[in-house]
Amino acid sequence: MADISDTPMLVSLDIGTSKVVAMVAEVPAQGELRIAGVSCQPARGLKRGMIVDIESTVMAIKRAIEEAELMAECKIESLTVGIG
Q1: Residue 84 forms part of a structural domain
Q2: Taking CA 62 as the corner, what is the angle to CA 56 and CA 66, rounded to the nearest 5 degrees?
Q3: Which end of the chain is more exposed for a tag (fewer CB within 10 A), N or C?
């Protein structure tokens, strides 16, 4: 896999009521996106779209990001977040 400095990466974080998903995709100069890492964690701190346990929510976000980083062999420095 190319080093993160060699290949642009697109990182997304989707925070939903039931799960938190982090995804890392390589964006090559030519060709299609390649999914390099993905992680799905249960969102136990959310109920009906509201945060009811901030600590559990933060832990789910951290775990999702850390697992996606490991799979993609990169360090995530910025990302796009979707909530809902």
Answers
A1: no
A2: 145
A3: C
CA distance 3 to 77: 14
Residue/partner pairs of 39-42 with CB below 8 Å, 24 or more apart: 39/63, 39/64, 39/65, 39/66, 39/67, 39/68, 39/71, 40/64, 41/67, 42/18
Q: What is the CATH number of the domain that holds 50?
A: 3.30.420.40
Residue 72 lies in a domain: yes
Q: Which domain holds residue 44?
A: 9-79
**Residue pLDDT, tens place only, 21-48:** 999 999 988 878 999 999 999 998 888 8
This prediction's pTM: 0.85
